[in-house]
Specification:
452 residues, mainly alpha, Clc chloride channel, 3 domains, 3 strands, 68% helix, 1% strand, H+/Cl- antiporter ClcA, transmembrane helix, membrane, ClC, transmembrane
């Protein structure tokens, strides 16, 4: 009888695959969705408290030292954050420590409470990945299955924190490598994204609603104008990622003791907020998530320099070691930049704010497909074609740079085959400095596109 059952599943392998991954993905989704809900409630409370007590910005250096010291004392193994998860998916070695979840949760809430300009996606993704990986030992999963488990955790975390289940599923597949996706993880990632979003809503999570007013009809001018905007969005994403990594490397070079690095960044942010306030300029809109300004960019024209202000404050915060994420600040940068470009390109400002919202993220994270789907989930399907134009242009113009150093170059952006396959983005500068012969020796023979 048992032999007959094995024969049945061999004849229908898809049933065995679905029967295996459906419950695992659901468990991952419940863990990640619940963790994201708890995080979002804490984040809302921290934001309300900071807004009610703006003088707390002066305690940001002390908060930075506390976060830096805790990570230096207990979190060195997980300090790489999202990059650790990506590395473990590509080259599984050891389980992601469970302490990644509470450390990044606490570090992010403290960063927001005192006024750092950071996001939230990194926290949700890290919690989802860390919680999911704890099932590896419990279920005795093989390395290949562990890769899929971690991808499902990333999808669940992303989907639940933004309320975009399909974009979250694709993000977990797409973020690992430029030009290559693993479709063996498609089903678990989709299930994890959909269920995690529902779990978050069951806990009472309410996501921000963005309203796009007028839409430009699809035509020659609107496509060309959005393509031009896409170039600007890609360059903004490239500047953001390059500046953040560059400042981080510079601070690590000159400040040897890690807890002092966010002290430096916190001091710069606090003084900048005070100095701009003394000049009758409200810089508080550049700290924290900045959701009110994002919403405003959909409703009315905003200051044309707002995108630059948020970019600088976020680069300083993340580059000096505060915890959080990059994505919501990228939403802010994109929405306000799109708002500023709209009158120049004769496009509705709410529409271009919505497109910039996703397109800057597309270039900075090298995830054009996830962001196109996100645009349609957040703003409606009508925006899809023009959002696709901007996201693809941003992705191309951002080049081989990105916010995730552990991301691999699965295939180059501009050629069918490339000697860069499987190179980490963080190693690109060293690779470019090598001789062509050394580059070829390091990368190995060229592979067919899409082949692992």
């Amino acid at each position: 009888m048992r032999s007959d059952r094995f024969k049945f599943f061999k004849a229908f392998p898809q049933l065995a695959y679905i029967g295996k991954w459906m419950p695992i993905a659901c468990v991952v989704a419940v863990l990640a969705g619940s963790a994201s809900a708890f995080f979002l409630f804490m984040l809302d409370a921290a934001t309300r408290w900071r807004e009610a007590h703006p003088a707390m910005i002066w305690l940001l250096p002390a908060a930075g030292f506390a976060v830096g010291w805790v990570y230096h004392r207990w979190g060195r193994a997980v300090d790489a954050g999202n990059n650790l998860l990506i590395d473990q998916i590509h080259d599984p070695t050891k389980m992601v420590p469970l302490r990644m979840a509470p450390l990044v949760l606490g570090g992010t809430v403290v960063s927001h409470l005192f006024g750092a300009s950071v996001g939230r996606e990194g926290t949700a993704v890290q919690m989802g990945g860390a919680l999911a990986d704890q099932l590896t030992r419990l279920l005795r999963l093989a390395p290949e299955d562990r890769r899929i488990l971690l991808m499902a955790g990333i999808s669940a975390g992303f989907a639940s924190v933004f309320g975009t289940p399909l974009a979250g599923a694709i993000f977990g597949l797409e973020v690992l490598a430029i030009g290559r996706m693993r479709y063996d993880a498609l089903f678990p990632c989709v299930v994890a994204g959909l269920v995690a979003d529902q779990v978050g809503m069951a806990w009472g999570v309410h996501h921000t609603h963005y309203t796009v007013g007028a839409m430009a009809p699809i035509g020659v001018w609107s496509v060309l104008a959005v393509a031009v905007a896409g170039v600007a969005f890609g360059l903004a994403g490239r500047v953001f990622s390059t500046a953040t990594h560059g400042l981080g490397a510079l601070v690590r070079r000159f400040v040897a003791y890690p807890p002092l690095r966010p002290v430096l960044g916190g001091g710069v942010v606090a003084v900048a907020v005070w100095a701009l306030g003394a000049a009758q300029f409200d810089a508080h809109k550049y700290i924290g998530l900045g959701i009110p300004t994002i919403v405003q960019s959909f409703e009315m024209p905003v200051a044309p320099w707002d995108f630059l202000g948020k970019l600088v404050f976020t680069v300083v915060s993340l580059g000096t070691g505060f915890k959080g994420g990059e994505v919501t600040p990228l939403f802010y940068i994109g929405a306000t930049l799109g708002n500023a470009l709209a009158p120049l390109l004769h496009l509705p400002f709410s529409m271009l704010a919505a497109i910039g919202f996703v397109a800057v993220f597309a270039g900075a994270a090298n995830t054009p497909l996830a962001t196109i789907v996100m645009a349609m989930e957040l703003f409606g399907p009508a925006i899809g074609p023009l959002a696709a134009v901007a996201c693809v242009m941003s992705y191309l113009c951002a080049g081989h740079t990105g916010i995730y150093h552990a991301q691999r170059v699965g295939a180059g952006k501009y050629a069918a085959t490339t000697p860069l396959e499987d190179l980490r983005l963080g190693d690109m500068a060293r690779h470019r400095a090598m001789t062509p012969k050394a580059q070829a020796g390091e990368a190995g023979p060229e592979k067919e596109v899409g082949r692992p």
